[in-house]
Task: structure prediction
Amino acid sequence: MTPFPIRYFAFFCAFVLSFFTVATGFAQTLPPGLRSEYAAYFEASTTETLPIPAPDVKLLEQEDAQLPVQNRISAPVSVNIQSNAAGSWVRLPDSTQVWQCRISSEGALALIVLFDRLRFPEGGFFYAYSPVNGKVIGPVQAIHLTSSGKFTLGPIPGEEVVLEYHAPAYTRGQEDIYLNRVDYAYHPGALSPGDVPESTGFGASLNCNVNIQCPEAADWQTQKKGVARILMVFTTGSAWCSGSLIANTAGTGVPYFLTAHHCQIILSTPIFDQWAFDFNYEFASCAGGTIEPTFQSVVGCERISWRAETDFLLLKLNPVPASYGVYYNGWSRATSPATTSSLIHHPKGDVKKYSRDNSAALSHPNPINWGGVFGTSPANTHWTVVPDVGIYEVGSSGCPMFNQDKRIVGQLHGGISNACNITASYFGMFHISWDQGSSAASRLKEWIDPANTGAMTKDGYVPPPNPVSISGSVKAWWGGNMPAVQVVLSGSAMDTVTTDTNGNYVFTDLPAGGTYKITPLSKPLVLNGVDAYDLILVSRHILNLEPLDPAWKLIAADVNAGGTVTTLDNVDARKVLLGSIPQFPAQKSWRYFPASTVFQDPTNPFASLPNEFIELGNVVQNTSGVHFFGVKLGDVDKGANPGM
Result:
């Protein structure tokens, strides 16, 4: 078969438009650095702009001429930017702090920032934005972060980008921000005068596409919830594809995701930890609009299986938040062709679209030569359809082909088109992908039918929430393990566990998406570590002869929990030591605080004393690192035995 011109294939590399894009007209979503009430604080800061060297654009264009199928628009530049060494911190009136770092690269049409590590606690917010046109990407929250720490934001139009992390009160120092790569957009056709890429992203698809909310797609409002656009990150750039969550015969919530094999070889070396899957990225009505809709993203995936002959790629996504309301689409491995075929996809990375062929699909009888590294597909491995409603474009690759029963029977490989006129399109056959690979790594059945039921079809379903766990430790503030501490869980579930010999605890089988409060309970031995020497040290502090340092000692001295250290505290401690009263006025022997606590003023920790519990919201994946420090009241010289 005569090779098709590469420019007509649906697997063109597409430039990334946006990630967590927010309309800048909503003040509550703006980063602090763009809010007028904080302008004076940032104007007084000394944040310098860090220059990023521009790549050799002429050399890049020469390389591109030799590799036209890659259609590269951006090139990576290695950087080493860390929050503890670059940028500056600004304290706001509510005691929260903001890290701000500015980067620029001369001549760039846009910049994409890629993090080797982006980690911060619950309540933190991260943004990237253009100081010139105010385009904002964010807020990124802790729930969006990956377990690996890798993350991607961009592109942001222009030569300069502001990175901004909003740290909640008392969490300064818990963040770990390491930017190791910036992608420099250099292609002369990458951006239009309106700072929107001409060939990809929001609003870029042709008008002959049909929005998913249009009447033609009225019967597909459930299945659309499983389809997402994919932002694929490679060592040499980024690209768009489409795909769908897929049901398994066990009916579990394992987030398997079907797309096209060729999507992973568009550029060099995919970085799956940084692939992003955008769900619910669509207009609210058929008419659409000019304001980009919000979307919900999952970052990071694992490659499970793939096969070039039928061009399938099965991925396993990182946990999908229950709040996204996704749907796992059903499938059929019947060999009979679909009587009608429907597609749900994201052409050029645009909002979700719908297409349909009203005629029966056909098995393509000839090999298909895709050219170059994309190889040749054997005869009778692909369905061929021609849409009567809507079209598809670059970035639609990997989208599901549904039969008349709303079950997946293939995924888009490519085809031939001239603008709105599609003359051929080819979809890898699901039933061949099912079991014709040489091993589980090259077929679907072991993953989609884990119990080997032999099912020919599977209907779609709303995924059941996977249970999650919460774990952490309780240690004395100076580092000693605290075994046998009772830890109480409340909120969406209730439980009580006891720390082990190393001070560790874990709550298991918790409903995903819940809100949980974790509270350690005080141990009973009030005199543990309390002696006359503690009274002397507290007295010397009160007389300004020898301050108690660090701040944890001040909290230990405050045995009446009055929020200060006075002679009354020493009087009460003496009464307990002499046995005249059985307990401190604080009504506890130990107090527990988040181990992440950072005091704004260590000489007065009571001004920023956190709660004696940790609360987690919308827990959708296993959560570790929920650690506490124990403070033994009355013990200011670390004489207590944490094991008692």
Summary: Residues 465-644 form a domain with the Immunoglobulin-like fold (CATH 2.60.40.10). Residues 1-28, 188-200 have pLDDT under 50 and may be disordered. The two ends are 80 Å apart (CA to CA). The first helix runs from residue 39 to 43.
